[in-house]
Design a protein that fits this description.
Elements: H1 2-16, H2 19-23, H3 29-32, H4 73-103, H5 111-150, H6 155-169, H7 174-196, H8 198-209
Helix pairs in contact: 4-5, 5-6, 6-7
Length: 210
């Protein structure tokens, strides 16, 4: 009686957790080990799901209708202007510290010297931040206008925006200043475009050599 009750209880637990339903009363696990699972995919031992359903073949982000997958010049303008301002402020602060220490090297360490060095740091930081921020603002504005006008985004827009930025920034120096600014902007943006497309150009040259 007691053994029968124990067997019925164990079979009840086995049926509850699926062991009895899978193996069956007349078959052992060794008998079912070689039976092929026709029409069934192997499941992960850790997740009771088909691993193929975990593979993402599409992008994880949902874009609005007609939106581009890459950020345009208008979206990049905020990052460009802010980054140039921060870079200019950091460079100007270091340059101001160097100039301040150089100009006050004959003074003893005192409060007047500290104030003079601090004034030089803040002055140079604001100057360089304003300069680079203005250049970034002009470059971004020209880039957005050229992109909207041409209806395309390529390296030609970058070089044209850089050239026009240099010309406008140096417009107060006359025709010679305009020419110098345009050439400087064209050279800088040309080098940037060359660096940006270097991998593509090298791959094209390797394919042509083969």
């Amino acid at each position: 009686m007691e053994g029968g009750a124990g067997n019925s209880k164990s079979s009840g637990f086995a049926g509850l957790f699926g062991a009895g339903g899978m193996a069956g009363p007349g078959y052992s696990h060794a008998d079912l080990a070689g039976v092929p699972l026709t029409g069934m995919n192997p499941l992960s031992p850790y997740l009771n799901v088909d691993p193929r359903y975990l593979i993402q073949d599409t992008d994880e982000f949902i874009l609005p209708t007609g939106a581009s997958k890459t950020r345009g010049r208008f979206e990049l303008a905020f990052f460009t202007i802010g980054g140039c301002c921060i870079t200019g402020a950091a460079f100007g602060a270091l340059n101001g510290l160097r100039l301040g220490l150089k100009e006050t090297q004959n003074m003893a360490w005192s409060k007047p010297r500290n104030v003079q060095v601090l004034n030089m740091v803040t002055r140079q930081g604001a100057l360089w931040a304003n300069t680079l921020g203005s250049l970034a603002l002009l470059y971004s504005a020209f880039g957005v206008i050229i992109e909207k006008t041409r209806g395309a985004e390529d390296d030609l827009n970058t070089m044209a925006a850089g050239t026009m930025t240099g010309m406008l920034y140096k417009s107060t120096g006359g025709l010679r200043g305009v020419a110098r600014g345009g050439i400087a902007g064209l050279m800088l943006t040309g080098l940037y475009s060359l660096y940006n497309n270097w991998e593509h150009m090298r791959g094209s040259m390797q394919r042509q050599s083969l």
